[in-house]
From TrEMBL:
<keyword id="KW-0223">Dioxygenase</keyword>
<dbReference type="Pfam" id="PF14226">
    <property type="entry name" value="DIOX_N"/>
</dbReference>
<dbReference type="GO" id="GO:0016706">
    <property type="term" value="F:2-oxoglutarate-dependent dioxygenase activity"/>
</dbReference>
<keyword id="KW-0560">Oxidoreductase</keyword>
<comment type="similarity">
    <text>Belongs to the iron/ascorbate-dependent oxidoreductase family.</text>
</comment>
<dbReference type="InterPro" id="IPR005123">
    <property type="entry name" value="Oxoglu/Fe-dep_dioxygenase_dom"/>
</dbReference>
<keyword id="KW-0408">Iron</keyword>
<feature type="domain" description="Fe2OG dioxygenase">
    <location>
        <begin position="209"/>
        <end position="316"/>
    </location>
</feature>
<dbReference type="GO" id="GO:0046872">
    <property type="term" value="F:metal ion binding"/>
</dbReference>
<dbReference type="GO" id="GO:0009805">
    <property type="term" value="P:coumarin biosynthetic process"/>
</dbReference>
<dbReference type="InterPro" id="IPR044861">
    <property type="entry name" value="IPNS-like_FE2OG_OXY"/>
</dbReference>
<dbReference type="InterPro" id="IPR027443">
    <property type="entry name" value="IPNS-like_sf"/>
</dbReference>
<keyword id="KW-0479">Metal-binding</keyword>
<protein>
    <recommendedName>
        <fullName>feruloyl-CoA 6-hydroxylase</fullName>
        <ecNumber>1.14.11.61</ecNumber>
    </recommendedName>
</protein>
<dbReference type="GO" id="GO:0002238">
    <property type="term" value="P:response to molecule of fungal origin"/>
</dbReference>
<comment type="pathway">
    <text>Phenylpropanoid metabolism.</text>
</comment>
<dbReference type="InterPro" id="IPR026992">
    <property type="entry name" value="DIOX_N"/>
</dbReference>
Length: 365
């Protein structure tokens, strides 16, 4: 046991895990045989195996066909998935397999480092606002912590990234951004075009100009049924592009988003080698006046081996105004959301612990 660490004392545990930067990885490396109480989730927030649907319709889309004779069918598939589940997977997306494999290896290498190498990026001491290392989602505001450590890198331009991101991560993450950007633009154009909305380049940039890549690390957990890797939430941006490793554990709420606990149906988004997971964020749900759905999702822990994932979050600029597109309000006869400043929406989101799709209340009428 580490000196000055009492697993049964919340303050001692919080200092060790959060303030000193040891994270969940540091706890696991102590040889834990059971989860500390601070990580035990309330029963209604755990993933009940009975709630998990056994099958999911195949929502794997070959996005290279957007450039061919099957363009309309591919757009229909993207739109259908975005209107129903809010999640789909893409193949032939332009990111080389060796880049995807390297991202997984690099994520493991970063979190396997001694704590002093990672703790230099804790938000209180990080040399740059563009990079932050930490644990859980909002540990200061959470009653039960998530079983997750995270490295977050804000992308502004290549030069800033090379100056500030961790040396071992920056080149492969830059390559991920470079090789996935064309696909992201095509998806946004397909989804916005399907709404009958035309945007000029400056407005499209305003709605998708923020770019963050995270590396998430979920250590193997001695009591996976008591914990969560990520709490139930929807993302708040436009689109998320996610690389999973082969272990699995990402679950999406299906059907009635307001179903009461016990009546929910969850489906796993299965890992597919070489595929990327795409999910709709709150901003796109708001702009589409509710047509596209930002699905509630969560991550389970496992006792088998440590898992990593690498999401890229495409979001509006902080100063951007987001509200239903006027063309849709005219057509629908009603605005289902009010116009908000994205930066204020972001601030509201990160001031609280994750809580399903409650984040949308900020923009609800």
């Amino acid at each position: 046991m580490a000196p000055n660490l009492n697993l049964n004392d919340d303050n001692s545990l919080f200092n060790y895990v959060v303030k000193e930067g040891n994270g969940v990885k540091g706890l696991v490396d102590l040889g834990l045989t059971e989860v500390p109480g601070r990580y035990v989730q309330p029963p209604h927030l755990r993933m009940n195996k009975q709630e998990v649907a056994s099958s999911l319709e195949n929502v794997t889309i070959d996005v290279s066909e957007l450039d061919g004779p099957n363009h309309e069918q591919v757009v229909k598939a993207i739109v259908h998935a975005s209107e129903t589940l809010g999640f789909f997977q893409v193949i032939n997306h332009g990111v080389p397999l060796e880049v995807l494999d390297s991202l997984i290896v690099t994520a493991h290498q970063f979190f396997d480092q001694p704590v002093e190498k990672k703790a230099v990026y804790l938000k209180e001491v990080s040399p740059s606002r563009l990079v932050k290392y930490g644990t859980s989602f909002a540990p200061e505001n959470e009653k039960a912590l998530e079983w997750k450590d995270v490295l977050s890198m804000i992308y502004t331009n290549d030069a800033d990234a090379r100056d500030s991101w961790p040396n071992d991560c920056k080149e492969v993450v830059l390559e991920f951004i470079k090789t996935s950007s064309e696909m992201v633009q095509k998806l946004l154009q397909a989804l916005i075009g399907n709404l009958g909305v035309k945007l000029d380049d400056s407005r499209l940039h305003e709605l998708s100009g923020s770019d963050i890549v995270n590396m998430n690390f979920y250590p193997a957990c001695p009591n996976p049924d008591l914990t969560v890797g990520v709490g139930r939430h929807s993302d708040i941006g436009m689109l998320t592009v996610l690389l999973q490793d082969g272990i699995g554990g990402l679950y999406v709420k299906k059907g009635d988003q307001n179903a009461s606990p016990g009546n929910e149906v969850w489906v796993e988004i299965p890992p597919i080698k070489g595929a990327l997971v795409i999910n709709v964020g709150d901003s796109l749900q708001i702009l589409s006046n509710g047509r596209y759905k930002s699905a509630e999702h969560t991550v389970r822990t496992t006792d088998v081996e440590s898992r990593v994932s690498v999401p890229r979050f495409i979001s509006p600029l902080p100063t951007a105004k987001i509200g239903p597109f006027p063309e849709l309000v005219a057509r629908d006869g009603v605005a289902r959301y009010k116009e908000v400043i994205y930066g204020e929406y972001w601030k509201s989101y990160f001031e609280k612990s994750l809580n399903g799709k409650k984040s949308l209340d900020f923009a609800s009428i």
